[in-house]
Amino acid sequence: MAACMMLAEKNVPVIWIAPEGSSKPKPGESLASSAVPLLKTLGLACILEAPGHRKVEVLFSSWGTDQLVEQNRTGLAGDLGYVIDRSVFENHIYCAAVRRPEISRCFDTAVSLERSHDSWTVTTNSGSQFEGAFVIDGTGRHSAVGRKYTTLNRSDKLAAAYDFLIQVDQDIEPTPATLIEAVADGWWYATLLQDRRLAVNYYSDPDLMPKGLGHDVETWKRIIGQSRYISRWIDTGGFGVSRPPSLASAGTTYLSTAAGPGWAAVGDAAAAFDPLSSHGMTSALWTGIEGAKAAALWLDGTSDPLMQYQNRVAEGVSQYITGRAQIYGREHRFPGSAFWQRR
Ligand SMILES: Cc1cc2nc3c(=O)[nH]c(=O)nc-3n(C[C@H](O)[C@H](O)[C@H](O)COP(=O)(O)OP(=O)(O)OC[C@H]3O[C@@H](n4cnc5c(N)ncnc54)[C@H](O)[C@@H]3O)c2cc1C
């Protein structure tokens, strides 16, 4: 959506092909504060003032220590970002994008892509065909276009089990906090949403997750019970665990090059990060904006904007991989655990 909006800003006509959004809630609601200037660039400065979002006031973590350590926005940690209602947030950007006359929205899935001379032909699932001079791959972790032209690298196989828990005991006033807890086979994240649902995510490697987790609520309850602080928050906050979690890939993947002649990958299609970074959405906004600017320049005949874009994405990936190793390296309590050894 960011790429479409930036292309429209540059007066480039866009065909935006993507299926209709799913009604299933999407995981990921921690938005880094570095997203704010990017939203301003897209003319969406007020978006975070809408109901459903809140500033993170306090973050607790048990990482590298059995103690629960508190960071608040008045302390050294500075701005801790936002907890957003993901569907409200994405819908707001969606409405702004479809209002642009330069953008034609096609509700379909791209199934094939052919290149001849200076143009591309995209065929969709329903058989429609579209021609264009440039293709932007924003297909998320599929990297549907990018993987045809370069290598998709995978640096780990992190997986997520997640659910949004409902408060069954409404007499309890839940704490508007975010909590991260490292455990022997992975780590937990929980945050309270404005509508009082508790987003709970468990991250581990697929071979270390209990078998059948995605189908069995008792297994989900059992592993929640193995956490010290997450389970306590669920119990004392009056939240119910009534169904098995959804499962998703959450590993780090990135293309060897994020762009080439006539194409660029943006968002997770270019580089998808471990959610520990809480930078997936911000990176999608940034690459969407910068990838679209590079595409517009390339279409105008400027020689190397795609190379510059690709180098900046590669630099971001390399900084992220170094930062990730440092954060995982702070946890020494589980020396025999395959999960921590792999990181
Ligand atoms: C469990 C989990 C927790 C996360 N938590 C956070 C968090 O707290 N904070 C954060 O910033 N990030 C988080 N992330 C990461 C964040 O969700 C992603 O980085 C972000 O969604 C990337 O946006 P995107 O637009 O690139 O890809 P996506 O959101 O995956 O969107 C891709 C789009 O492409 C469409 N598409 C796919 N294939 C085709 C095709 N062939 N033709 C047409 N359309 C297609 C899809 O329908 C979809 O609309 C989390 C991720 C996971 C898995």
UniProtKB/TrEMBL annotation:
SUPFAM superfamilies: FAD/NAD(P)-binding domain. NCBIfam families: maturase_GoxB. This is 2-polyprenyl-6-methoxyphenol hydroxylase-like FAD-dependent oxidoreductase. It comes from Roseibium hamelinense.
